[in-house]
Input
Amino acid sequence: MSDVHDDEFDNDEGDDGDDDVDGNRIVGALPKNVLTYLATSIVEDPGAVVVETEERRNSVTLRLHVGPSDMGRVIGRRGRVAQAIRSVVRAAGAREGVEASVDIVD
Output
């Protein structure tokens, strides 16, 4: 048996379990992070990926900018990759309780 006291691991004084506080929360942070991750994973030049955020009351519009040579990778054949990205980002927004949409900009 170990002499480690259980109280050492139960030190949650600062955590009161209140995850509902929206005071300092950034609207659309999760969808933006998901979009940034997906875009940087797909493109050849991840340094050229820029995601702009436009917040509204209960929705967020994300504008994705990529390098000109990577535009085809992000859009995909018949727009299938773009639609998949939009679906995943929309789901991430739903998890946060916001409606997220993605615009792919030249």
In short: DSSP finds three helices and three strands in the chain. Residues 17-21 have pLDDT under 50 and may be disordered. Helices lie at 29-42, 71-75, 80-96. Residues 51 and 61 are 10 Å apart (CA to CA).
